[in-house]
Amino acid sequence: MKVLAILGSPIRKRNSETLSKKVIESIENHISTDESIEVDFVSVQNLKVSPCVACDRCTRIKGCVFQDDMTHLYKAFNDSDIILFSSPLYFNSVSAQAKAIIDRCQAIFSSKYALKDPMIDRNRKRIGLFISTAGVDMKDDPELFKGTLPVMDLFFRAINTEYLGNLFVGNVDRVKVVDNPEALASAEEWGRILTNKYSLR
Ligand SMILES: Cc1cc2nc3c(=O)[nH]c(=O)nc-3n(C[C@H](O)[C@H](O)[C@H](O)COP(=O)(O)O)c2cc1C
Predict the structure, then answer these.
(1) 93 alpha carbon – ligand 1 mean position (Å)
(2) How many domains does the chain have?
(3) Where are the beta strands (DSSP E) in the chain?
(4) Ligand 1 in contact with 172 (CB < 6 A)?
């Protein structure tokens, strides 16, 4: 099993990373003993990803004009079974660093629909989870994460990954995820769900 975890917070070891790591720990605990697991953690803090400049080259030539850390991610999207994409909620959306990665998937989109020569193997089964944390309490705004949903839906469709669901935790500026047993239990549960779904593929 290959797991790709994209950590979309510009700061390491914070709430969205804690949740991602908890989900992975749970996958490791639930995976069958004859299965091996390879985890690729990619933090936006260490990545160089230029924002898409809409040059349109990808509609004529397969791939992106920029040679940066997306080269690794394009391959990792293709090769992964489980994709965990995490981001803090910034102005009701994902972080700018996370959005740069998403926009650069335009090259994958073009390879499928303009060039009809997909960069991504459309027959491989991949499953995805979106993890996000926010300062506002979901009790005060139950639709807090609403703005991220169509973005993530299109992203997971671009990379031919079944978008299984979301792990959303609010109020993290007051109660950190590490001090929130309910949030950690949800992460644990998502690890179980993803492992089950993977084993049924
Ligand atoms: C630029 C910026 C924008 C933010 N926008 C929102 C927001 O729209 N809604 C919200 O609830 N919290 C917002 N926050 C708070 C963050 O979502 C919260 O601190 C974050 O989930 C922490 O994630 P991390 O610990 O993984 O970095 C914002 C924080 C920053 C720095």
Answers:
(1) 9
(2) 1
(3) 2-7, 38-43, 82-88, 127-133, 162-169
(4) yes
> What CATH number is attached to the domain comprising 124?
3.40.50.360
Q: Tokens for 129?
A: 């989870």
Question: What is the Å distance from ligand 1's center to 147 Cα?
Answer: 13
- For residues 162 and 159, give the distance between their C-alpha atoms in angstroms, rounded to a whole number: 9
How is 75-92 classified by DSSP, letter by letter? HHHHH-SEEEEEEE-BTT
- Under 8 Å CB-to-CB from 142, ≥6 apart: which residues? none
Are 194 and 125 within 8 A, CB to CB?
no
What is the residue-level pLDDT of the chain in tens, covering all 201 positions?
A: 999 999 999 999 999 999 999 999 999 999 999 999 999 999 999 999 999 999 999 999 999 999 999 999 999 999 999 999 999 999 999 999 999 999 999 999 999 999 999 999 999 999 999 999 999 999 999 999 999 999 999 999 999 999 999 999 999 999 999 999 999 999 999 999 999 999 998
Q: Residue 90 — φ and ψ, nearest 5°?
A: -120, 120
- Residue located nearest, by CA, to atom 3 of ligand 1: 90
Q: Compute the residue count for the chain.
A: 201
Q: What's phi and psi for 148, nearest 5 deg?
A: -80, -20
Q: Which domain holds residue 7?
A: 2-199
15 lines ligand 1 (CB under 6 A): yes
Helix H or strand E encompassing 113: helix 106-113
